[in-house]
């Protein structure tokens, strides 16, 4: 696994496999006969995906059957202290890079503020397909404006 020397963030490889469908992690792990042609996403509450972080090997065999996955989506909201946001960005990047290193098609999940905090985009593949979740990002006008500014920044920089 490669680590970005400036930020210490894990580096993800570019992916071009466009998902034909998406299924939440909690549903994918609970269904008896899931649609394995879908990608598994982690756009769920942090407490739901924490079980993957705590024991990823438990879910790896099942996840590898799907067409691909989207890296985890731990919260990075502006009300969180910066060290917690940095740690969550690290976890998001690490889970994706780790699954890629094991041969699983993993898309990078990007959460990005409109300005500052360059670590948000460190290790994110350039000129590649990425995923962006809006969970908790568009509830009010301030959050929506911040989300839109982050999208513009990600497009410009990636």
Can you tag this structure with a few keywords?
globular, about 40% helix, about 160 residues, alpha/beta
What does this structure look like?
- This protein is an alpha/beta fold.
- It has helices at residues 25-30, 46-54, 56-63, 82-101, 141-157; strands spanning 22-24, 39-41, 68-70, 106-109, 130-131.
- The chain has a 5-stranded parallel β-sheet with strand order 1-2-3-4-5.
- The protein is globular.
- The mean pLDDT is 91.
Write the layout of secondary structure elements.
Layout: E1 22-24, H1 25-30, E2 39-41, H2 46-54, H3 56-63, E3 68-70, H4 82-101, E4 106-109, E5 130-131, H5 141-157
Parallel strand pairs: 1-2, 2-3, 3-4, 4-5
Care to give the gist of this entry?
By secondary structure, this protein is an alpha/beta fold. The chain has helices spanning 25-30, 46-54, 56-63, 82-101, 141-157, and strands at 22-24, 39-41, 68-70, 106-109, 130-131.
Approximate shape? globular
In terms of structural class, how would the helical and strand content be classed?
Answer: alpha/beta
How much beta, percentage-wise? 5-15%
Radius of gyration: 15 Å
Percent helix = 25-40%
Cα(first) to Cα(last) distance is: 21 Å
Uncertain residue segments:
none
For the largest beta sheet, what order do the strands appear in spatially?
1-2-3-4-5
